[in-house]
Design a protein that fits this description.
This is Polysaccharide pyruvyl transferase family protein. One of its GO terms (molecular function) is transferase activity. Keywords: Transferase. By secondary structure, this protein is an alpha/beta fold. It has 2 domains: about 130 residues, no CATH class; about 150 residues, no CATH class. Helix content is about 40%, strand content about 10%. It has 11 helices and 8 strands. It has a 4-stranded parallel β-sheet. A 4-stranded parallel β-sheet has the order 6-5-7-8, sandwiched between helices. Strand 1, helix 1 and strand 2 form a beta-alpha-beta unit. The longest helix is centred in the C-terminal third of the chain and has 27 residues. The chain is globular and about 65 Å long.
């Protein structure tokens, strides 16, 4: 069975969790054969997978980046990320259990009591690439977590934080799973926003993301061009010099806002909701192991 996850030009914490977590939970389950495709963490429910391959959905979500896939007998859905995904795929609401990264609770113990960082900020990987968020965090006096760093590094920094301001959705999901309070920052790039509400719906979180300004003019121009692929390509090709326009003003403005968010009332799903989601996922893990053993024996 092939473990599928999105891999962009740079490593991204949320996607790379797949390679970190699943071999620990399902050892000896994966290989490179594409007759079975495992879809775990990420907005990766696309209509473009090979029609004859068996697609195993284990917590993945629909992100709206493409048309929704049409499920047939070659799709086996154990559970999906949230109610938005369930509705988009025509699934029963009971299939909306939560993001599979909640299973990190089975891989890691509780976060350390002694925290090294009073507040941390983890941007979306595109913001880390295009923005100036490391400089913003220096001005704001907030610890910067780069989502492009190795998974172990990011996990350790989240666990060492008293509160995490998260523009990266899996910064919030992992913080919540590991019981680290978090503050949702609405992604600067607008097409990454809907999927937050999908995950939150499964945990009964009343999600109210805070506005976050662009950290430089390049990031602002890219956000304004979203939805127009030609404009985005032009900005990327010709707009790198925008980083040098009004850098002090943009950084100071973003730092002031980020410092506000670090003092905002943080979020945390209820203990009942997170424990229930985790237990259901463990039950689905057992069912998957049994199903795969039966298929191999047949």
């Amino acid at each position: 069975m092939k473990l599928y996850y999105y891999r962009c030009s740079q490593p991204n914490f949320g996607d790379e969790l797949n390679a970190w977590m699943w071999p620990r939970l399902l050892p000896d389950m994966f290989d490179d054969r594409e007759d079975e495709i495992f879809l775990g963490i990420g907005s990766i429910l696309f209509p473009s997978f090979p029609a004859r391959s068996r697609k195993i959905v284990f917590g993945a979500g629909y992100g709206g980046y493409t048309a929704a896939p049409k499920l047939d007998a070659n799709w086996t859905v154990y559970f999906v990320r949230g109610h938005h995904t369930a509705r988009a795929l025509g699934l029963p609401e009971a299939k909306a259990v939560g993001d599979a990264a909640i299973l990190l609770r089975s891989c890691l113990g509780p976060a350390a009591a002694n925290k090294r960082y009073q507040a941390s900020f983890i941007p979306h990987w595109e913001s880390a690439r295009d923005g100036s968020w490391d400089a913003v965090c220096q001005v704001a006096g907030i610890h910067y977590i780069d989502p492009r760093r190795p998974v172990d590094d990011v996990l350790e920094q989240i666990r060492a934080s008293e509160v995490v301001v998260a523009e990266a959705m899996h910064g919030a999901i992992v913080s919540d799973a590991l019981r680290v309070p978090w503050v949702p920052a609405r992604p600067v790039q607008g097409d990454h926003r809907m999927k937050w509400f999908d995950w939150a719906s499964a945990l009964e979180i009343d999600l109210r993301p805070h506005l976050l300004p662009a950290s430089n003019l390049l990031e602002a121009a890219l956000a304004a061009a979203r939805g127009d692929a030609i404009r985005v390509r032009r900005v990327r090709r010709y707009g790198q010099g925008l980083r040098r326009v009004l850098p002090g003003y943009m950084i100071e403005r973003a730092a002031a806002r980020l410092a506000q968010l670090a003092r905002a009332e943080p979020c945390l799903s209820s203990e009942r909701a997170i424990c229930s989601a985790h237990q259901k996922m463990l039950e689905h893990l057992d069912a998957l192991r049994r199903d795969q053993a039966l298929r191999r024996a047949a």
